[in-house]
Design goal:
It is built from two helices and no strands. By secondary structure, the chain is mainly alpha-helical. The radius of gyration is 32 Å and the shape is elongated. 0% of the residues are buried.
């Protein structure tokens, strides 16, 4: 049994050493080519892609309407079965009075 263990450990050590040698030999000249390729891809694909996305976002924001949508009191929306543990208990944690309606309508509007 001890002989089998020593033999398996010796084989494992030799295979690990051989694998390390192969990896270090194959990675010697490959790194510079890969770095050059990724640098070119960054400047040719990634940066123009980010610029196009920023332009798209800017143009969409310019044409976006900033008016409040009409309040429709649907019964399945804005259900409050118990109070929120902050503030007055009726507003969510990230409440925006311009965009988020309360169960009885938007804040500051008397309709």
């Amino acid at each position: 049994m001890a002989t089998f263990r020593r033999l398996s450990q010796a084989l494992l050590r030799s295979s690990l050493t051989q694998t390390k040698r192969q990896l270090s030999a194959s990675a010697h000249g490959h790194g510079e080519d890969a770095a050059k390729t990724w640098k070119i891809l960054t400047f040719v694909v990634a940066l123009p892609g980010v610029a196009v996305c920023m332009l798209n976002m800017y143009l969409k924001e310019q044409s976006h309407s900033h008016e409040q949508p009409e309040f429709v009191p649907y019964t399945h929306l804005r259900i409050r079965t118990k109070r929120f543990p902050w503030g007055d208990g009726n507003k969510s944690l990230f409440h925006n009075p311009h965009a988020n309606a309360l169960p009885d309508g938007y804040e500051g509007h008397d309709e």
